[in-house]
Design a protein that fits this description.
Layout: H1 8-26, E1 30-33, H2 38-51, E2 60-64, H3 70-83, E3 87-91, H4 92-97, H5 114-125, E4 129-131, E5 148-151, E6 179-182, H6 190-200, E7 211-218, E8 221-224, E9 237-243, E10 256-257, H7 263-272, H8 282-285, H9 290-297
């Protein structure tokens, strides 16, 4: 009698598909957060595998800060069109105009303003669940997340008030106004993501691969030169061969010097890395508690 053993990626894939199907079974109006970044690309492939040949039973939702890399938005729109999926985009700019999001004077990044924009979208469409591509290996506060992460009526997260997940059983019960954030990729690592991209032959935005770009050194990292980031007289602009490991606002995404121009090269580079990918995000480097504070307020 022969036995069948799952390899590491197959196990992670099976686990994530199980979580996605649990969402479809337990929630009335879920949404899948899709930015066009590498994690959400893998999440979308997993949703295809979970529900095909039926349509993916949830719309794609993206909060656009207005500071996104153009390559990312182009990829997002094209991928949604290819799948015939409904894409809902809510813009921080519109939320500011409506008074939903209020900028702080002197604050350049719009990452914080994604919180009220997302919560307003959840209320507008009455979404009771938002599926995200966050992983526990990214940074400390995300390591505290469970697969089903409960959010109260204000959209807030309390890491000390979460539900047990024994034997892969998930409690998705929510009252009106409350919702759940679900993270099927919780147990994946950055290396797992790239191995899956390779195995599934997934297309990813070009900025993940090495390219030449003008950069400026700020707070120990290279930031891309853009009209959104005012230059100081002391700034030295250099043209470098760089790529991104994780993508946020164009003004806070650190570029890493790299010659990796293929998925195999990226896998080798990530395997040898000793700094987490979010170590290149200026908004996370501001303080160790920055991400946890934003998550408690309703961030992804």
């Amino acid at each position: 009698m022969s036995s069948y053993h799952l390899d590491h990626l197959q196990y992670l894939e099976t686990e994530a598909i199980h979580v996605l199907r649990e969402v479809a079974a337990e929630f009335e109006r879920p949404a899948l957060l899709f930015s066009g970044g590498k994690d959400s690309i893998c999440l979308l492939r997993l949703a295809e595998k979970a529900f095909r040949p039926s349509e993916i039973p949830m719309p794609l939702l993206n909060v656009d800060t207005g500071h996104h890399f153009p390559e990312l938005n182009q990829f997002r729109d094209r991928r949604a069109w290819q799948l015939g999926a409904k894409l809902v985009v809510r813009k921080v700019e519109d939320a500011i105009a409506k008074g939903i999001a209020v900028p702080t004077p002197g604050e350049v990044s719009r990452n914080r303003l994604q919180i009220p924009t997302l919560l307003a979208a959840m209320e507008e469409f009455r979404f009771d669940c938002a599926i995200g591509g966050a992983r526990r290996d990214e940074e400390k506060s995300r390591a505290k997340e469970r697969f089903f992460s409960f959010r109260d009526g204000f959209g807030q997260w309390d890491p000390k008030n979460q539900r047990p997940e024994i034997w892969n059983l998930y409690n998705g019960r929510v009252n009106p106004g409350e919702h759940m954030r679900v993270f099927p990729l919780s147990n994946w690592t950055e290396l797992d993501i790239w191995e899956y991209v390779k195995r599934e032959k997934l297309e990813v935005p070009s900025i993940y691969f090495s390219h030449t770009r003008k950069c400026v050194r700020r707070n120990g990292q290279w930031l891309p030169v853009t009209d959104l980031l005012p230059l100081k007289p002391s700034d030295q602009v250099k043209e470098l061969v760089v790529r991104v490991r994780t993508i946020g606002d164009i003004i806070s995404t650190g570029m890493v010097e790299s010659r990796a121009d293929s998925v195999d090269d990226i896998i080798a580079e990530v395997a040898a890395a000793r700094v987490t990918e979010r170590g290149s995000r200026a908004d996370d480097k501001a303080s160790e508690a920055a991400m946890e504070d934003r998550k408690k307020a309703g961030y992804f």
